[in-house]
Write a structure and sequence with these properties.
α1 crosses α12 and α4 packs across α5. The chain is elongated and about 65 Å long. Strands 3-2-4-1-5-6-7-8 form an eight-stranded mixed beta sheet, sandwiched between helices. It is an alpha/beta fold.
Length: 302
């Protein structure tokens, strides 16, 4: 199945909710009531107030300048506006070697996403190393080990309770010796002890930074968010962004929610590009993000 078809299928719940609602409210008289109803539809999809207001302004301009005569015209205008907000997402793997620090609260699909991301990079012909940096939970290392085996990549791990920064140091040393192209680092996500978590992440961040001196490797910090949590995901971004200055978002479980518009809210509020989206349980169901494809899929436009 092609990437767009997978994305289209993964966003089916959100697209159905939006398109059915648009059909109910569509009118050629674009009055205040229509725009109020359209605003409500976008907010229900969790696009957030800031992004929704920008989209509504865009639709008003299009309606005034060139006219919107059909539902399809409206969807095209909406897709263009959403894509504009989401545009500017730089492609992954801009350089030959990358270190990717992956953060996020427990339960969002962090371990699964790391395994799928490892598989994605390996499919591009890159050598990948996974680092089991969440030493707080024994299950985290065990699950990561399973995913590393599935993807056919190396993993560096230590016993439960080991210093995460020490695990990362060993892994970075190993990656340098083996000349791995991609290093993906898992981290703990226990927000109930936020201060300790933040300090732990900062320590890991400093360790990785020591290996970035030569400029040959790009260092990225991605947060994994569960799309089904909707606007609550924004609070998680704030906590982790304060700790490590995030570069991007991995959004999981898009296929399980009608609130896929949270992608738009995150980009609008934080300026963080979405790097990957999860649309299923299979090893290849984590897709590199495409703004145009997403904007069409969320409106059911094949």
């Amino acid at each position: 199945m092609g990437i767009f078809k997978k994305l289209f299928g993964g966003l089916a719940k959100t697209a159905t909710t939006i398109t059915n609602s648009i059909t109910q409210i569509f009118t050629k008289d674009f009055d205040d009531d229509f725009y109020d109803d359209l605003t409500a539809i976008l907010l229900t999809a969790d696009m957030g107030m800031e992004a929704t207001e920008q989209i509504i302004d865009d639709i008003k301009r299009v309606a005034k300048k060139q006219g919107i005569k059909t539902e399809h015209d409206l969807k095209v205008a909406l897709a263009n506006s959403i894509a504009e907000i989401l545009s500017g997402t730089p492609a992954c793997s801009l350089k030959e070697r990358e270190v990717i620090l992956v953060v996020g609260v427990n339960g969002v699909g962090k371990t699964t996403s790391i395994g799928k991301m490892a598989n994605h990079y390996k499919s591009l012909g890159k050598s990948v190393l996974i680092v089991a940096g969440d030493t707080f939970r024994a299950a985290a290392t065990e699950q990561l080990d399973i995913w590393a085996n599935r993807a056919g990549v190396r993993i560096v791990k230590q016993d439960q309770g080991a210093d995460p920064a020490s695990v990362v140091f060993d892994a970075m040393t190993s990656a340098a010796a083996k000349k791995d192209d991609i290093v993906i680092i898992d981290t703990a996500g226990r927000l109930h002890n936020k201060a300790h978590l933040v300090e732990e992440l900062k320590k890991i961040d400093r360790v990785v930074g020591r290996f970035m001196q030569n400029g040959e490797t790009v260092y990225r910090k991605f947060i994994v968010l569960d799309a089904t949590t909707g606007q609550n995901a924004l609070n998680q971004v704030e906590v982790f962004n304060d700790a490590v200055d995030l570069d991007g978002v991995i959004l999981t479980k898009l296929d399980g929610t009608a609130k896929g518009g949270v992608v738009v809210a995150i980009k609008q509020k934080f300026g963080l590009p979405v790097r990957f989206v999860g649309v299923g349980e299979k090893l290849d169901d984590l897709l590199p993000f495409d703004a145009q494809g997403f904007s069409r899929a969320i409106l059911g436009m094949e």
